[in-house]
Protein: Carbohydrate ABC transporter permease
Organism: Streptomyces desertarenae
Amino acid sequence: MATSTPAPGTGGPHSGTPEAPSKEGPAGPLPPAPRRGAGRPRQARSTLLHRFDIKAAPYAFVAPFFVVFAAFSFYPLLYTSWLSLHDVELATLDLMEWKGFGNYTELWQDEQFWNALLNTFTIGVISTVPQLLMALGLAHLLNYKLRGSAFFRVAALTPYATSVGAAALVFTMLFERDFGMINWALGHLGFDNIDWEGEKWPAQLAISSIVIWRWTGYNALLYLAAMQAIPKERYEAAAIDGASRWQQFTRVTIPGIRSTIVFTIVLSTIGATQLFGEPLIFGQGPNGVSGGVDNQYQTLGLLLYEQGWRNYEMGRAATVAWAMFLLLVLIFVLQRLVRRLMTRTS
């Protein structure tokens, strides 16, 4: 009987495809090898997720800041700008009467606004200049190796950690006209009692002393941190060249912390423009909002509060707020121009 053999290239009598050769291992036949391209979709998905993770993770980390900024800073800024273009009262914020730039023109012609602006400027100068000079000298002393330096650094920061309300109340009792300690000490020196709250310049000096006391130590620690970042080799080279301590301070220390000095000037300027708590508590009552009987120490912050929460004119209050914002922008632009001129000349 004749038998048929499979033709070359066939897997058998009923197969039209070649049969894959089987491999045997030590435990028996091995499973067939996976087809080419079977794992590519899974690998592509993992690569896509990896790329998305790398690109989206930074945005996810910074997203909380932008959400909070948009809710509590950007939206109030836009809403305040919208209010400044209307005549609206505090009790009826939903009833707005379009006024355009009428609030701004009225504010430009308001003597009380210019008085508040001048008071803000004078109190800012009286408080900022001595504050930064004292902070610079204090940081220079703390930069030396002293016994108990950690204690002095903590003591310098204590006024900053004190509540503005508590500090203002203490200084109000110190500057009280009839029973204050300041007038008591001046009386022993032969001076008459000074009405610190009723007169313009004494009131501004008293308010400035509160600001100086609270912020000198904070700025001193900023200067100290910048001073300790200056390489000691610069001081050694200056000492070898015969420079005195004062020359090292003016020619090594000051140029080395110039950026920190500019930062504290900008920070103190912003704080002076927004000054509110110290004069409000110093006035001890209704006079605190108006900045005294004759508005002798009313700042822009107090004017904003008076317009919005005493007179209930939210449109005027929003206009004052935007005037403060534009003033800060102008100060920032001038600071950048001065810094650019200083870098060109140096």
About this structure: The chain has two domains: 49-83, 107-345.
